Sequence to fold (412 residues):
Amino acid sequence: MNRRNRVVVTGMGVVAANGIGLDAFWSSLVAGRSGVGPITRFDATAFKSRIAGEVKDFEPLDYIDPKFKPKRMARHTQFALAAMKMALADADYEPAKYFIDHPIPVMLGVSTTAMDILEDCWSDLSRRGPRGVSAGVVDCQPQAATQMLTMALGISARATTIASACPSGLDAIACAAAMIRQGEADMAVAGGTDATITPLSMASFAAAGLSSTRNTEPERASRPFDLLRDSGVISEGAGMLILENYETAIARGVLPYLEIVGYGSQGDNYGSDELFGLGQTMRMALDCAGKTPEDIDYICAYGPGHPALDIVETDMIKRVFRHRAYSVPISSIKGVTGNALSAAGPHQVITCGLCFKHNIIPPTANHEFPDPRCDLDYVAGRFRNRKINTALINVRGLGGGNSSLVVQRVVE
Fold:
């Protein structure tokens, strides 16, 4: 990263299975209170996996101007708009009040598209034929959510959609940060969103072994690094951030949550002895930030609760951190949030921002039985009072994509 400008996060907005808004989200994380439950968005009786992290009590009109016809939008678009509105309010930033001589970057990560609209259209086609299909072609395109965000901003904006599976949201944040760092913008909106709790999506995740079958205990189903984990739990949601040049933020009188200082992204290298790229992304992010493993006070892990992937991340942390791996606290928020795909990375950044604010590390919920292959400090049981100054965030995705981000407490 070019260190021409410092990049800070001044506003955060979250829509998640465990809560809407920062207060609800954080209190759930600290308490280890899961947002996973039985699927209610469709009849999942015949499904092998009948649980998910659904966003509860979400009313689009509470966040979106009726002129945009929110009821017709894809659910992940609704989530992104709501999270952006919350992030702008949190940053006390109204774009229309500022003179900006360039388009504001709006970068959104998505791992899928508008599956709810696509499946509804396919159902209409199957039942009523071609003439019975609604005009959903625009709303279901991958870039539709990002374009809607720019429309809602009401000013000139540069829309970019990133689709790199689960790392998409984290990658979008890093790309927006790079633009500010290089002087191409003073402010940006970035994050990720996904809403895949639909019949076809959930059947596909279950067929791939990516959705837990602990149907009778949904709140205990997502068990990162735990010996009894059977798979992760798919969830939905959005996380949006307001990124600013540090000097601009200070001039506005805003107290930033954190500073973004390092980033690395790499796919798995199937021609290398080190198959998994997550180890290399951690090294890249540390080098980019000018940090060593000894500088990291906390690792906000990917930790999806998958039998193999949790071991992979543990092994990669050991490889990169060596002796330090056993003394740095690690936690995964997915025991509470489930795996929100592209929104998961932004949820982790938001978690770190709140860790810096409250001097608390949230626990890894449902981590009850140690796995001999996962033998690090996963902050099991309850939260830990700890002031942290620098954190490492990991995200891994289907297809072998990996991304890591280093964030730190803002120091004048």
